[in-house]
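User: Here's a chain of 483 residues. Predict its fold as tokens.
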Amino acid sequence: MKQTVVLYPGVGVGHLVPMVELAKVFLNHGYDVTMVLVPPPFKSADFGAGVVERMAASNPSITFHVLPPIPPTDFASAGKHPFLLMLQMLRQYNDKLESFLCSIPRQRLHSLVIDMFGGDAIDVATKLGVPVYTFVPSGASALAVLTQLPALLAARQTGLKELGDTPLEFHGVPPIPASHLVKELLEDPEDELCKAMAKIFKRGMDTMGVLVNTFEELESQAVQALRDPLCIPGQVLPPIYCVGPLVGNGARGSENSERHQCLSWLHAQPERSVVFLCFGSMGALSEEQLKEIAVGLDNSGQRFLWVVRTPASMDDPKRLLEQRPEPDLEALLPEGFLERTKNRGLVVKSWAPQVEVLNHPATGAFVTHCGWNSTLEAITAGVPMLCWPLYAEQFMNKVFMTGHMGVGVEMEGYKTGLIKAKEVEAKVRLVMESQEGRELRARVATRKEEADAALKVKGSSHEAFVQFLSDVETIGIGEQSSK
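Assistant: Prediction complete.
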């Protein structure tokens, strides 16, 4: 009798996509997998509207179960930050999750794997005696910082914002400027949002183990720190299993990507000649910034493929709730830009099949917001990155990517909120034309080889997953013998 693993991802495309890839690993090891989802709280594509249907269609071996809806929270009119409302909503779904888990015979239920933001589901698993594990879709370096932050905040009377760019020391990572931590964690430690985030990061480490979307060779010092009993005073962290890179092959949008014009356009470009610009499912740039990028690309003389989304303010959390319309390229970009660059550039609206683009032989560099999914997709494709962080843990990721990982260069100006055309031109040329760019490409090629090796049988990530399965089995035997 096959055992069933239940995966419970958080809200948002960036959390759903890597957990679908984790599901495939379980399938390959002979398990049935059910992905339990809460109904998307709003219609924004950034938060999964429409994505689940595409995921289910392209992954028929995975069972997708959407929990029965509870009365919806009015995110738009509520006075609270959307993140607080999301945590509140996930708590309210605990009863529905419990009912679903109870519908699976206990001897068939292997484990519950929750997202790092789903810590309240631990109570359900504990009540039912189900082994529960955390899946972290971000990297080990960011996790090391976020795990150590609650103790740092608890010892402070004032927020970290006042420290500005003062470097902070954390086990396992290079010094991080205080300004590069998650923005919400810079506020007063008594601020509701700051407290909630610190609590959820701490709670997420209260499971029987943590599966991290990374490979040990990429972040060895951070992984060692997370395994060090002295990492957090008074707390021993659970086992850490590096099981990545969990990166799709592009199948989730296969129908769209087969028809997508940009792939046909790439086929006609020379090898490693195209700069790809894409800023993630929630990335938002101002109209002023779009114009600076256009001028920089125009002046660089390089080929480019650029995904442009309708502008929105990164400072307004309510932007997450809105379905953004298609961009009007003629209105947003400088007059004559599209005509001048039509023989060496392509601007596409809203979306492109990122995994296929990164793996296309014509792609030579990637201007990215430093989201972890995008970072791993570029590493596994062997594409060097130009780092332009926008929100969440991306500022920390930029420090790691341009530092010990050695896979990217910094786009100067991101801290002020506007990167000038001259910087776009200079950094694009540096990566595409210079000796420094060639050295960067060589480092990324080495990282790609390490990533490929980690996923092979006997590779570090494969062995970590086998160890995880063995540890769950040991827990099950222990439970049986104690009855």
